[in-house]
Specification:
The complex is a heterodimer. Chain A is α/β, with parallel strands linked by helices. Chain A contains 3 helices and 5 strands; from the N terminus they run ββαβαβαβ. The longest helix of chain A is centred in the middle third of the chain and has 17 residues. The longest helix of chain B is centred in the middle third of the chain and has 28 residues.
Chain lengths: 109, 406
C-alpha cells in the first residue's frame, strides 16, 4: 500500500519538526508549499528538522521543493537539517541529482 | 535587395525564435540592446529587438548600413570617438549609442540580408572569442531564416509567415525538439519521446549538435523541473545555449558550467532547474568512438558493449540552473565498434522499472539482449518494454550506435 502524501509538524526543544510521508511529486506541489515551505518561511523556531524517512517516492518537483526550503531557511539564517536513512528514496534522489553537499543531515539514532 | 525579397521577411510578425536569439545575445554579451536587423532600400527594419522600442531606422551610414557591406563582424568600441559613426543619429541623438558590434546575416549563397547586432550606451571591447560567438549566433539566425524559406516552399506560397508562426506556437513541444537528428558519419542515431499528458508541454528534451570541423557531435538529454510555459521557456534557453556551446567546441563540463550561468541569470525566479546528460562523441577512423560525458544531476547514460555487458558513464555533478558556481566533471571512455550508447530521462526508468523506480537495473535487462543491434532496433525494444496506456511521466531517450571501422 503506497501512502498518501501527508505532513505533520511539531515543536520540540525549540526546533520545528516537520514529518513528511507518502509520495512527493508534482501532484502535491501546492500542498507541499503550503504545509512545508510556508512553515519554514514563517517559523519562529531556532532550527528546522525535515524528517523524510517516511517518504516513499520523490520526483524532481519534490527535490525542487526541498531546495526551496533550504534556500528559505538560509535566507532567514535558520539551520535546516534533513532526516532519513541513507538507503531511502530521497537519499538516492539527492545523490543522483548531485546536490548531497548542499544539505545538512540529522544524525540518525 | 532581391535576396531580402526572396526571404520575404520584411514587416513579418514577431517570431519567438529570433526573440530568443536577441535575448540570449543580450545576456551573453551583457548589453541592454540586441537586434536582428534586415536592410531594405531606404530603411533598416528590426526583425527582433531586445531592449529597444523603435521598429525601424533610416539607412544612415556608420552602423548596420556599413556592417552589411562587410563579410566579417563590424565592431565600434566607442562610437562617440569613432569617425565612422560620430555623425550617426543613434550616436549623436537621444539613444546615445557608444558600443556597437554586428555580425552580417550572410545567406548560404553569399548575400548579406542584415545584421545581428549588440549595442550598449557604454564604450567597451569584445574579445576574439566573443566576436566568434556573435558570428555563430548570426549563423543561427540565418539557419532559422533558411528553415522558414524552405518550410514556406513546402507548404506552398499561399501559407504566409503568420500562419506558420501560429502553427509553430500550437506545437510548442515540437519546436523544443529537433525536427530531425543530424547525420553524423560513423554513428547511427535514433530518438524517441513519449509524452505523459498530451495537453501539457513536458519538461524532457533531447538534441544532437554537430561539432565544427567534422569532429563528431554533442548529444544531450535533459529534464526541466515542472511543466508548462515556464518549463518550456527554460528548455528553449537550454537548447539555444547548448547549440552555441557545441559550436564553440567546449568540453561537456565547460558547457554545463556555461549553461548553468546562463540559466541562473535568465531564470532567477521562480525557482527552476534542469538535469542534463551531455556526451561529446568523436567517431574514430578505426571504428568505435571517444566519449566524453558530463552530468548535471541526471541519471548516468548506459553503454552497451557488443558482448552484452553494460557500463554506466559519467560522474554525477549538481543540477543546472540553481547554484552559483557548481563543479562539473568530464569522464572519458572509448566505446568499442558496434557498441550502443543510451541517453535517457528518469521517466524511462519509471516506465520500464515500474512505479517509483529510480534504478537502471530493469532498463539494463532490456538492453542486454539487443547488444550489437542497430539504433532503431534498440529503440523498438525499449518502446516494446513500456507499459500499455498513458505513462505517469514523460520519457525521452536517444540511442546512438557506434559504427565499425571506416
Amino acid at each position: 500500500m503506497t501512502g498518501l502524501f501527508d505532513v505533520r509538524s511539531a515543536q520540540k526543544n525549540g526546533a520545528l519538526l516537520i514529518e513528511v510521508s507518502g509520495e512527493v511529486d508534482g501532484a502535491v506541489e501546492m500542498q507541499f508549499v503550503e504545509s512545508v515551505v510556508d512553515n519554514v518561511r514563517t517559523t519562529e523556531a531556532a532550527r528546522v528538522v525535515l524528517d523524510l524517512s517516511r517518504v516513499e517516492f520523490m520526483d524532481s518537483t519534490g527535490l525542487r521543493m526541498l531546495l526551496v526550503c533550504q534556500r528559505r531557511a538560509e535566507d532567514r539564517g535558520i539551520p535546516l537539517t534533513l532526516a532519513m536513512a541513507s538507503s531511502s528514496p530521497v537519499s538516492r534522489l539527492i545523490d543522483v541529482s548531485g546536490v548531497a553537499a548542499m544539505f545538512q543531515y540529522e544524525p540518525l539514532d | 535587395m532581391a535576396a531580402v525579397r526572396r526571404y520575404d521577411v520584411l514587416d513579418s510578425p514577431p517570431d519567438g525564435a529570433f526573440d530568443r536569439v536577441t535575448a540570449l545575445a543580450a545576456r551573453l554579451f551583457d548589453v541592454p540592446i540586441a537586434l536582428v536587423t534586415i536592410v531594405d532600400n531606404d530603411r533598416i527594419w528590426f526583425k527582433s529587438r531586445h531592449g529597444l522600442d523603435v521598429g525601424e531606422i533610416g539607412r544612415d551610414p556608420g552602423l548596420c548600413a556599413s556592417a552589411i557591406l562587410q563579410e566579417e563582424p563590424y565592431l565600434v568600441s566607442d562610437a562617440a570617438a569613432d569617425p565612422r559613426t560620430l555623425a550617426n543619429p543613434l550616436v549623436a541623438g537621444e539613444l546615445g549609442l557608444r558600443f556597437y558590434a554586428a555580425a552580417p546575416l550572410t545567406t548560404h549563397d553569399g548575400h548579406n540580408l542584415g545584421t545581428l547586432c549588440v549595442i550598449d550606451r557604454q564604450p567597451r571591447e569584445l574579445t576574439e572569442s566573443e566576436l566568434s560567438s556573435l558570428r555563430d549566433l548570426a549563423a543561427v539566425v540565418v539557419d532559422e531564416l533558411e528553415l522558414r524559406l524552405s518550410a514556406r516552399r513546402t507548404v506552398g506560397l499561399e501559407a504566409d509567415l503568420r500562419h506558420l508562426a501560429e502553427e509553430l506556437a500550437g506545437t510548442l513541444q515540437e519546436s523544443l525538439l529537433p525536427a530531425e537528428l543530424p547525420a553524423v558519419e560513423g554513428l547511427e542515431l535514433e530518438a524517441r519521446y513519449h509524452v505523459a499528458h498530451r495537453d501539457q508541454v513536458g519538461g524532457d528534451f533531447y538534441d544532437v549538435f554537430l561539432e565544427p570541423a567534422g569532429h563528431g557531435c554533442l548529444a544531450v538529454v535533459g529534464d526541466v523541473s515542472g511543466k508548462g510555459a515556464m518549463a518550456a521557456a527554460l528548455t528553449g534557453t537550454a537548447r539555444w545555449t547548448l547549440r552555441t556551446i557545441a559550436l564553440d567546441d567546449r568540453s561537456p563540463s565547460e558547457g554545463l558550467s556555461r549553461l548553468n550561468t546562463v540559466l541562473v541569470q535568465a531564470h532567477p525566479e521562480p525557482n527552476r532547474y534542469c538535469t542534463l546528460a551531455l556526451v561529446a562523441i568523436r567517431p574514430r577512423r578505426d571504428g568505435g568512438a571517444d566519449l566524453t560525458t558530463s552530468l548535471a544531476g541526471h541519471p548516468q547514460p548506459l553503454l552497451v558493449n557488443p558482448d552484452g555487458t553494460v557500463e554506466r558513464l559519467g560522474t554525477t555533478g549538481p543540477i543546472a540552473g540553481w547554484f552559483d558556481d557548481p563543479v562539473y566533471w568530464d569522464s572519458s571512455k572509448t566505446a568499442p565498434p558496434g557498441s550502443v550508447l543510451l541517453l535517457f530521462t528518469d521517466g524511462l526508468l519509471e516506465a520500464i522499472g515500474g512505479h517509483a523506480c529510480i534504478s537502471d537495473v530493469p532498463l539494463q535487462d532490456v538492453l542486454r539482449p539487443v547488444a550489437g543491434r542497430g539504433a532503431s532496433e534498440v529503440a523498438d525494444a525499449l518502446d516494446a518494454a513500456l507499459p500499455a496506456g498513458v505513462l505517469s511521466d514523460d520519457a525521452a531517450f536517444l540511442v546512438i550506435k557506434v559504427g565499425e571501422a571506416r
